[in-house]
Amino acid sequence: MARPEKATPTITVFGGSTSRSLRVTWLMEEMGLPYRIRPVDMLAEQEDAEFLAVNPARYIPVMLDQGVTMVESIAIMEYLMARYGPTPLCPPPDDATFPAYQQFLHLGEAGLATLMMIPLVSRQFGPEAERNNWGAELALEMVQRRQKLVRRKLAHSLYIAGEWFTAADISVTYALQLGGNYAGLVLDDIELAYLERTSARSAYKRALEKSLAAVGKG
Questions:
Q1: What's the pTM?
Q2: Does residue 207 sit in the same domain as residue 139?
Q3: Is the pLDDT reported for residue 174 higher than 60?
């Protein structure tokens, strides 16, 4: 099947300033893809009919691209790289870094960010007496065990798959920032230095600036 033209209509991303939609917009900034952000206020009392029409499960991000509707940030990233690549953000399967890339691309969500939501919502929104509940503490312990894999890898390489930046770094960076800022995850010097490297990228700064501007905070 022929690969589509490099030029593409503007992609729409439903999201928020610090949500998982940042993974998607950061990736598109790295790839030079045109997009617009349709902000969603997940805490609004009034239902967002347009948003619920594209994702009745009521979570973000949602991506619309030429008749394609997708949710799940990692799946969206893989779709964009496959459809509009090739890109150095995704090493080829025969590259020595590919196994680590694949592992940490998914661990950033499945092993880290998803589990972090339990202590996060407990700490941010739960009744004071329930903020350190048993389930939240167990989830945080599980994250901390998986965090050892991140630390071990970063002890020997600049980035999570090797010596150059990939989409796996977008996945893991978001997870570490989420945990450190909102879920009580303690980051060591290696992780902090890593976040300094990844968040210094111009594509990250552009994506964050546009996200903040879209929700009226920039």
A1: 0.93
A2: no
A3: yes
